[in-house]
Write a structure and sequence with these properties.
heterodimer; A: mainly alpha; Amino acid/polyamine transporter I; 75% helix; B: 412 residues; SH3 type barrels; CBS-domain; eight-stranded mixed beta sheet; four-stranded antiparallel beta sheet
Chain lengths: 471, 412
């Protein structure tokens, strides 16, 4: 083994190490004397502060190194379809549905945390794990269901782009192709780091809903009270809206995307605590935004009696006379941000699911030629999604209904597979569910499954009664 | 040609035509023969499962196996870790394709029939990782065999011959029982091996590193993503980590150790021989983004008065990586850096020509505290292959090679 510099022939005469002395360097003190006297005490204070906060700064840096997948996945939950449902919830029932936000945050956190844990500990995506443990056919059908559901959602996202730009009087024939192109270039050209940064910026832009809500001048005390104290109405429409809220919040594509993000980011089991914090932060921030959306429409549309709106685009338009153009613009901007954001992530998630499950190369960090199927799937979904919106009289409602039905098939299976996998000691080692967590997780899963099946039942039999899909 | 999908779930009949059980699993015994189907597991519902040996099989067809013995001649099933199970350990699992140098997932397994002494033996020929295998798995039992076969001929095939299949097994004891060796991996280029390792899960990566010899492990780790290298080294036992790190260049070791927690890096450094540990500690003193953080302490220098023949003879005796040798540094009588000679010049120099007449102009060196941007600028401006790093006295303490520069620039 080479051990450093070797002397060749004509070795050196004398012993240089001892003879010469290091040349005089300018003493540090002299340099500082060139700086004004008042700087010194500040430097001391800064270094003292630095020493005290070193522990917290180090924790913050460790956290910042990991944060990303949790925040992004949770926030993209508030996509065009989601915002439509939340706007309708506020418009039709005011603050009466706010109490469901806290249970939903818990449900979201519990399910997402399991995926984060699996990704961090096993280093494999959810589709990979399902293939390895449950076989080829179940994986194939999950992929098929996922494709149907996600395709419907992607159409809904481009519909959201079209609707939000409508407020600025830009025709959908300009906004949708531009949006499709932007989203396509981002993923094709960007590295996973760049893309993550852009997505995190998009998450920050969701704050426009906070501003929009403030401009709507709601009664904050009433909203706060309704968030904490449940008020259960027993009419059909109310219960349906409740199930729609749950259905739009817990979506399987999030699980696949979150696990794949943690794997691609190479977060190790040692960083599990930071990953969990990322998921917690994400779920809470997602529900906070939902709160502001509901409060915004609840304080304006509900109060003024303008209770029937079809989707988020309608909500933005209706805000103009009620809360001013500023609020409406912020709302529409939030919708545009959410739609673009989701239009990039949903096809990504689907492409990951399909490629992992079928054994093709996947990941943004690959070049096109290294992962041709991954990128082709992504491109295909964007093209079809945008095309559906541009075709006049496209059957968007039917597509959304089909998507809902697919979700009803997909969600229970994925949740059950997840719960089975997370309890396998040979996969997860010491990171299996604790008994308490298992109880919470199973209760959450069963509740969500029942509600989703109810939603599917109603969607198939009474499509016009469905929130978010009324034509 | 038969496929594992065709046989699994099929029915087994004994010599007299009575139904014995359902084929649940096919086993290979690598310790005995690496590709023969040695045992077949028959499930019988409520009853205990039975094992069929390879010499009990008289006839095989998709969905059917006929034995040449009676049911009472079969043994009861006892789990055996030395058996490789096709359904559990191979199908849908990831394996390493040592000829294609990547990690792939098994869709189906192709078998060939061989008549031996009146019985039929099944041998694994190749593993199907493409669409034909996927289609067969999907449609088996649903569509008619003719339809499946017809579809399979139209789809593109991707297969890997069995001898190029390297199994991934995380349990070291089972690895021994299954005779899993990584000789083919050790012959691969380290960059390809690193690619394969990046496609695996953390457990699998650890198990591969643990089973490679230290030199190959070190070469692969050097090519791996830095985050993964740190994760792997931290998880290894300090002694094993030190053994592997000893095989790496000191500057690479410094890079890995710099990212580890202080306690772990102390543990590993204390297991390394004093000389190497000292060198690494010296390098750790420099900032990562400085010339000192990029340099390699392993370089060659000779006196400027040496002749070409002397230098060549001396290099021949040394343990030098000839693939990476392109510059020889010169020092004067006070051990100060005095120039660099391209190895190409040595080819055509006269046997007694002195080194100082072969040196390159201009005389370039850099201090270890210099910013890495300055290093990049020098390499670009003067089209360098190596740059000497000198201490405050002008003595050479390290060399920066162009491949270090390329790696650094890519990761900015």
């Amino acid at each position: 083994m080479p051990d450093g510099p070797r002397f060749g022939p004509m070795a050196v005469l004398g012993k240089p190490e001892e003879e010469k002395q290091a040349p005089e360097t300018t003493p540090l003190i002299t340099r500082w004397k060139l700086v004004p006297g008042w700087v010194e005490p500040w430097r001391d204070r800064l270094s003292a502060w630095g020493k005290r906060t070193r522990f917290w700064r180090r924790r913050l840096l460790l956290f910042l190194a990991v944060v990303g997948p949790g925040v992004i996945t949770s926030n993209v939950d508030n996509d065009a379809g989601g915002i439509s449902v939340y706007s309708q919830a506020g418009a039709m029932y005011g603050y009466a549905l706010l109490w469901s936000l806290i249970p939903m945050t818990i449900a979201l956190y519990v399910t997402e945390e399991m995926c984060a844990r699996m990704g961090v500990v096993t280093g494999k995506g959810l589709s990979d794990l399902i293939r390895e443990e449950f076989g080829f056919r179940p994986t194939f059908f999950l992929i098929l269901a996922g494709l149907v559901v996600d395709m419907g959602n992607v159409c809904a996202e481009f519909a959201g782009v079209a609707a939000s730009m409508q407020l600025f009087h830009i025709s959908k024939y300009i906004s949708v192709p531009l949006a499709a192109l932007a989203v396509w270039i981002l993923v094709l050209r960007g590295t996973s780091r760049q893309v993550e940064k852009i997505f995190l910026a998009a998450c920050v832009l969701y704050l426009s809903y906070v501003l929009s809500a403030i401009l709507a001048k709601p009664n904050w005390l009433e909203a706060a009270r309704d968030t904490v104290i449940p008020t259960l109405h027993l009419d059909g429409g109310y219960l349906l809206m409740l199930t729609a809220l749950i259905g739009t919040t817990i979506a399987p594509w999030q699980f696949f995307y979150m696990q794949a993000s943690f794997v691609e980011k190479r977060v190790s089991a040692r960083q599990y605590a930071q990953a969990r914090m990322d998921v917690l932060f994400g779920s809470v921030s997602c529900m906070v935004i939902v709160f502001f959306i509901i409060v915004c429409t609840g304080a304006t549309l509900y109060v003024s009696g303008h209770r029937i709106i079809n989707d988020a685009g309608d909500a933005a338009q209706a805000l103009v006379p009620l809360a001013g153009r500023g609020a409406a613009i912020l709302f529409a901007f939030g919708l545009l941000n959410a739609s673009l954001f989701a239009a990039s992530i949903l096809p990504l998630s689907t492409a990951h699911v399909i490629c992992e499950g079928m054994g093709f190369e996947a990941g943004i960090d690959h070049k096109f030629n290294d992962a041709p199927i991954f990128y082709s799937l992504y491109t295909g979904m964007i093209v079809v999604g945008a095309a559906v919106i541009l075709i006049p009289r496209a059957p968007l409602q039917k597509i959304l209904i089909l998507s809902q039905v697919g979700n009803g098939v997909w969600l229970p299976v994925v949740l059950i597979f997840m719960l089975l996998l997370i309890n396998r000691r040979d996969l997860m080692g010491d990171f299996v569910n604790t008994p308490t967590f298992n109880v919470v997780a199973w209760v959450t899963a069963v509740a969500v499954i029942i509600l989703t099946l109810v939603l599917v039942y109603v969607t198939v039999l009474h499509p016009s009664a469905m929130p978010g899909t009324s034509g | 040609m038969l496929h594992a999908t065709d046989l699994l779930g099929g029915e087994a009949y004994d010599r007299d035509g009575h139904f014995v059980g359902q084929v649940n699993e096919l086993f290979i015994e690598p310790a005995d023969q690496p590709n023969r189907v040695a045992r077949v597991l028959l499930g019988r519902g409520k009853f205990l499962p039975l094992i069929v040996r390879y010499d009990h099989i008289a006839f095989v067809a998709p969905g059917v196996i006929r034995l040449n013995v009676e049911e009472k001649d079969l043994e009861h099933y006892q789990p055996n870790e030395a058996w490789l199970a096709m359904r559990k350990d191979l199908l849908d699992q990831q394996i390493i394709d040592t000829s294609g140098r990547k990690v792939v997932r098994v869709n189906d397994i192709d078998l060939a029939e061989q008549r031996v002494n009146g019985t039929v033996e099944l041998r694994v020929t190749q593993v199907d990782v493409g669409l034909t295998g996927a289609a067969r798995r999907l449609l088996h039992g649903i569509a008619s065999p003719g339809l499946v076969q017809g579809l399979a001929t139209k789809l593109p095939t991707r297969v890997i011959p069995w001898e190029f299949v390297n199994l991934i097994e995380t349990d070291p004891l089972r690895r021994v029982k299954l005779r899993i060796t990584h000789q083919k991996l050790e012959r691969m280029h380290p960059a390809d091996l690193a690619d394969i390792m990046e496609a695996l899960s953390p457990f699998e990566r650890q198990s591969i590193i643990a089973s490679l010899d230290e030199e190959t492990a070190a070469e692969a780790l050097a090519e791996l993503d830095k985050r993964l290298t740190t994760q792997i080294v931290e998880t290894l036992a300090p002694q094993k980590a030190a053994d592997i790190l000893e095989e790496m260049e000191p500057d690479q070791v410094a890079d890995v150790i710099a990212d580890m927690t202080p306690e772990r890096s102390r543990d590993v450094l204390s297991e390394m021989p004093g000389e190497e540990a000292r060198e690494v500690r010296e390098l750790l003193k420099f900032e990562e983004n400085s010339a000192g953080g990029m340099m390699n302490t392993d370089f060659i220098y000779v006196g400027e008065a040496a002749t070409r023949d002397e230098v060549v003879a001396w290099i021949r005796e040394m343990d030098v990586d000839l693939e990476r040798l392109d510059t020889v540094f010169l020092i004067d009588r006070e051990a100060k850096f005095s120039g660099a000679v391209a190895v190409g010049r040595l080819l055509f120099a006269a046997p007694d020509e002195r080194m100082e007449s072969l040196k390159m102009e201009p005389l370039l060196s850099i201090s270890p505290d210099a910013h890495d941007k300055d290093v990049f600028a020098l390499f670009d401006k003067y089209n360098l292959h190596s740059l000497a790093v000198v201490d405050a006295l002008g003595r050479p303490i390290g060399a920066i090679e162009v491949d270090d520069v390329v790696t650094r620039i890519r990761h900015r």
